[in-house]
Amino acid sequence: MMPKPNRQFSLVLTLLLLALFGWPVRAQAPIKVSPYRREPSAKALKWANDELRKMSLEEKIGQLISVGVNATFLNQDSEPYRTLKHHIDDNKVGGIILFRGSVYESVILVNRMQQLARYPLLISADLEAGAGMRFEDTINFPWNMAVAATGNPEYARRQGEVTARESRALGVQQIFAPVVDVNNNAANPVINVRSYGEDAADVARFGAAFTEGAQSAGVIATAKHFPGHGDTAVDSHRGLPEINVGRERLNTVEFVPFQASVNAGVGAVMTGHIGLPQIDPAPVKPLPKSVRGKPTDTDDLGEIVDEKGSMPATMSPVIGRILRNDLKFSGMIVTDALSMSGLTIYFTQEEAAVRALEAGADMLLKPADIDASFRGVREAVKSGRITEQRVEESARKILAAKYDLGLVEQRMTPVDAIDRIVAGKDARDLATEIAEHAVTLVRDEDKLVPLKNLKPDSKVFNLAITNGDDRNWIANPFITKLERIGLKVETIVLDERSPEQDVQKAIDKAKAAELVLASLYGRVRSGQIASVGVPDAGARALSAVIAAKAPIVGISFGNPYLLQNFPGLRTYIVAYGDMPSLQHAVARALMGEIDIAGRLPISLPGLYTRGTGIQTKATK
User: For the CA atoms of the chain, what is the radius of gyration?
Assistant: First the structure.
């Protein structure tokens, strides 16, 4: 058996193959990047207008559509490759949104599509937490709520700059960030730590800072999800959430961060599949199952179908006019993914695309059926329902943005610069710095933190509970860091598949330990039923250990509200996420290597107010 090549060898081989087969790795001009401004330049408008005069109706419509891609290796004769090529060649699509993939495969695939497209493609990605959110082997920044827990918006600005710099190196020109939803609903299953918090003014400060940082480094920032997805208890990937409040409340809460982002020059705003019955009460009804498409962002069991719904913002001209006329936003309006169940339950893809344009959208993001969306818009123009001028209005914005982003001059992404820019020391250091200032000690009734009285041979048990399919590795960064500092721990990880014997074994280990670390990996899982909570097996084990009055340090590596489920935890730390930087920071904080200085950006209803945080000094 041949030895498995190491990562360095694989990288060299990859670059060699790129050089041999037409993708030069030397003498590539660097991407010219300038700060992005919302208002298009005169040269950009002239180029866009010149091109529009030459474009067919189909080419104009195609500019408005962005297709979703999981970037994996695709043979050119494979069905996925031929399908993507069809959308480039036949539907003339104007953009691609990248989901999960490796760095070089993503860039090579995008470069290939850029070669095929008549007009440069606008490449986008959901990089809310940096490149690591979508690109394997890159750096994940802590979630927005961790950034806000530092109290320092300068971290958001710096995160925006680094994310943008890495994005451009990866061939991405538009990032769907920042999330500026005000998370004032503790039961929110999809926003949670993706938000900067529950205070509208704080969310506004951090969101504006991120926007300024990102656009200064040459990407289009996108504030989302207008009119606000924070005060909802339904995930729009699964169903249609509603915010049943009036305009006065919206003006003073939900709209505040969006207005701040607009004032900061944000280039795009993403509208969400969210009903506002007091603003646009037009009813919507579920489609018959025979017409409704199969769920793509959840599963059949995950869909939430409600017979009573109101017009989602993405489809509402009323809400579109508020964004344009009242918030004075002149940039690009992007729909949330048209494939999400919050939309597909109620509208066909043909109808959704047309209604989105009628509501003021410019970019139709990730249709579940691209052919249908394209066909729907074309037929709407031919029937006179919408005008060709309306299509041109949005196409002009997108084309002008491409010009100002430098894509007309250089649409290809050089591969030789990637490993000099992406996942470098500046990104690692910034992630660490944010994480170490974010760790929040909410409660410490037994004065356990930092762990001053433990000896190297003390019996410490780590009860890790995860709501993901990752039990073999999720706790590794935390365990490894503790052991490197000098604390040996025994760990059992429980998830929804854990049998009763594993639950009992964990309980027995905990009862025999001098200290229990309860590591709670209850994280946001978009489209999934078990989002933000912990599975029953883990909950039973933790409840039993609490009842036995064992000394426990509870640590939330995700949903900060978990203390509400386990109020018997007498010591509770919030890390706001499972990123390695956050797991390392908690380990260092527990061992007294760093100060603990974070403060809650949200309240824990009935327990602690926003701003709570016990401050401790390093002991080592």
Answer: 25
Q: Which tokens in the block code for residue 73?
A: 């290796």
CB atoms within 10 A of CB 73: 12
Contact 225, 198 (CB under 8 A): no
Q: Which amino acid is at 370?
A: I
Neighbours of 99 (CB within 10 A): 14
CB burial of 272-310 (b: ≥16 within 10 Å; e: otherwise) equals: bbbbbbebbeeebebbeeeebbebbbbeeebbbebeebb
Structure tokens at 38: 């919302």
Q: How many helices (H) and strands (E) does the chain have?
A: 21, 16
Q: How far apart are CA 321 and CA 328, in angstroms?
A: 9
Q: How far apart are CA 129 and CA 214, in angstroms?
A: 12
Helix extents (H) in 446-532: 476-485, 500-512
Q: What is the pLDDT of residue 503?
A: 98
What contacts 479, CB < 8 A, 6 or more positions away? 462, 489, 491
**Which of 511, 582, 503 is CA-nearest to residue 545?**
511
Question: Closest by alpha carbon to 439, among 483, 481, 491?
Answer: 481
Measured at the CA of 181, the angle between CA 178 and CA 182, to 5 degrees, comes to: 130
92-107 residue pLDDT tens: 999 999 999 999 999 9
| CB-facing half-sphere around the CA of 398: CA atoms within 13 A | 31
Taking 50 as the pLDDT cut, the residues of the chain under it are 1-10, 12-13, 17, 19-27
Interatomic CA distance for residues 471 and 492, integer angstroms = 9
Is there a contact between 586 and 573 (Cβ–Cβ < 8 Å)?
yes
CA 245 from centre of chain = 26
Closest of 251, 266, 291, 252 to residue 213, by C-alpha: 266
Q: Which residue has the tokens 């327990």?
A: 607
Contacts of 82 (CB under 8 A, 6+ apart): 76
Per-residue model confidence (pLDDT) at position 32: 84
- Note the residue count of the chain: 620
What is the DSSP code string of 491-504? Answer: EEEE-TT--HHHHH
Q: Provide the token pair at 67.
A: 């297709």
Q: For residues 217 and 255, is the Cβ–Cβ distance under 8 A?
A: no
Contact 516, 461 (CB under 8 A): yes
Dihedral sign, Cα of residue 338, residue 344, residue 350, residue 353: negative
To the question of pTM greater than 0.85 for the whole model, the response is yes
Decide: 295 and 339 in contact? Cβ < 8 Å. Answer: no
Cβ atoms of residues 394 and 361 within 8 Å: yes
Q: Which of 175, 173, 72 is nearest to 133 (CA)?
A: 175
SS3 (DSSP) at 549: coil
Q: Maximum distance among all alpha carbons in the chain? A: 78
223: left (phi over 0), alpha (psi -120 to 50) or beta: beta
Pairing of strands 122-125, 174-175: parallel
Q: Do 120 and 31 meet the contact criterion of CB atoms below 8 Å apart? A: no
| CA dist., res. 522 & res. 563, Å (int) | 11
Rounded CA-CA distance 447/453 in Å is: 11
Confidence at residue 532, expressed as pLDDT on a 0 to 100 scale: 97
| Helix, strand and coil in the chain, % to nearest 5 | 40, 15, 45
The reported pLDDT for the residue numbered 358 is 98
Alpha-carbon span 354 to 358, nearest angstrom: 6
